[in-house]
Amino acid sequence: MNLSHQNHHLISEIDRKGLYKVIFSRRDVRGQFRPDPIPDHVISRILYAAHHAPSVGFMQPWNFIIIRSKSVRKQIHDVFKQANQEASEMFPKQKRKMYSSLKLEGILESPLNICLTCDREKTGPVVIGRTHIKEMDTYSSVCAIQNLWLAARAEGLGVGWVSVFNEKKVKEILEIPDHVVLIGYLCIGRVTHFYQKPELETAGWLPRLPLEELIYFDKWDKNGQNENSSLLNQVRKDLHFPEYSIQED
Amino acid sequence: MNLSHQNHHLISEIDRKGLYKVIFSRRDVRGQFRPDPIPDHVISRILYAAHHAPSVGFMQPWNFIIIRSKSVRKQIHDVFKQANQEASEMFPKQKRKMYSSLKLEGILESPLNICLTCDREKTGPVVIGRTHIKEMDTYSSVCAIQNLWLAARAEGLGVGWVSVFNEKKVKEILEIPDHVVLIGYLCIGRVTHFYQKPELETAGWLPRLPLEELIYFDKWDKNGQNENSSLLNQVRKDLHFPEYSIQED
């Protein structure tokens, strides 16, 4: 048996704890950015983490536009401001004031913005695994964002995903071609602190949903009976697993 | 200053190494599943990892359909087989034989399938951060999949994302309502081994792209000049960072 291309590396309990700590302490950061520049060797590592995301048919459809120019960030920020004004008017009156009080981006305060894209034509018209579900390529680019986000958290960097803007206008500023989809616009930088919980949860906008209510068995809306109740009991028992995971040793 | 809701936990170098090891050793598994059932406490942990993904407007739009029933899996497998036949005919003749030789799913061999969805109506018509880009909710569910995938790898479990099927037919089998999007159909289980590299890379289907070619500065297609060359030099220098990260200590 040829073992040379097999990976026998076990993930240790220590590695696993590290992963869970990063997953549960990752936050969407908007307001706690510090302006210190990020060293190249750190940017390089988080880009490698993104580049090793899963991709349908091994397409690797992503590109990374590194935006450090103040004038480009200023243009993007103007596009955000206009959209944010439009957005606030979409909410019912009683939520409008709270919406306007929320800080939703750190485009100018963070030292680094990254626009992550998806080139839908990268590997030709037919892609393994994308013959029937066309969104699979954009989903691959989203997986790259999540890898980058976790790597950034592990490097002590905050990331905020900005999504309140007219996509066409941002694509014009960044000169992104029509066949390329803008997947995520990320603000990245060192932070003064990370919050214990998501800001929208703390602000009372929406509560964390109980995991057990999100689980079905074998069909939509089918709750656990008998043979499935042990998993639901376990999920209830693990309610505080995320908090335990980020506690100091 | 009220510190009670702030998270001062530092991620240690050991935690960070654990994360990178998991990110770089994660694989899309199709053919190496073992039939051993997965303990409830492990399923619970990977579901919590998914549930703590970022979500636009704190929507948490995901549900998890846990599929262990053999008859349901058999129905899904039939839908896959039909689509896979259709898919093979879409490729140019010279790639068709190779396509047919690739194993693209482990629906029946893996002991656990999870269908992860996105309920687009979960929190009402207007969602913070989704006022202008409507795909943000489906992207949130994709982030949940990536978290689950990494957690599974850290637990020693392989995950394979199956995407070759008629979505409407699978939704019918699982009785998923119209307004809910099927985001990912995952096969999960213990494995005989993980491959060192993605199977499509090893098979010569497509090569790993050099990261440096995917990086632009401030605009699409703009390569690094002067002030940006140090980052590109660093990226070249870190070419083997992913391999180093998964080496045994």
CATH architecture of the largest domain in chain A: 3-Layer(aba) Sandwich
- Low-confidence region ranges of chain A: none
Strand order of the largest sheet of chain A: 2-3-5-4
Specify the CATH class of the largest domain in chain A: Alpha Beta
Order of helices and strands of chain A: EHHEHHEHEHEEHEHH
> Which chain pair has the greatest contact?
A-B, 132 and 132 residues
**Backbone CA Rg of chain A:** 21 Å
So what's the oligomer here? homodimer
Distance between the amino and carboxyl termini of chain A: 42 Å
CATH topology of the largest domain in chain A: NADH Oxidase
Main sheet attributes: strand count, strand direction, barrel closure of chain A: 4 strands, antiparallel
Quickly count the helices of chain A. Answer: 9
The total domain count of chain A is 2
- Measured by DSSP, the beta-strand proportion of chain A falls in 15-25%
Helix content of chain A: 25-40%
Describe this structure in words.
The first copy, chain A, is α+β, with helices and mostly antiparallel strands. Helices cover 40% and strands 15% of the residues of chain A. Chain A has helices spanning 13-25, 40-51, 70-88, 93-101, 136-154, 167-174, 199-202, 229-237, 241-246, and strands spanning 6-7, 62-67, 112-119, 157-162, 180-190, 194-195, 215-217. In chain A, strands 2-3-5-4 form a 4-stranded antiparallel β-sheet, sandwiched between helices. In chain A, helix 2 runs antiparallel to helix 5 (136-154) and helix 3 (70-88) runs antiparallel to helix 6. The longest helix of chain A has 19 residues, at 70-88. Chain A is globular. The termini of chain A are far apart. At the A-B interface, strand 1, helix 1, helix 2, strand 2 and helix 3 of A face strand 1, helix 1, helix 2, strand 2 and helix 3 of B. Strand 7 of chain A pairs parallel with strand 2 of chain B, so a sheet runs across the interface.
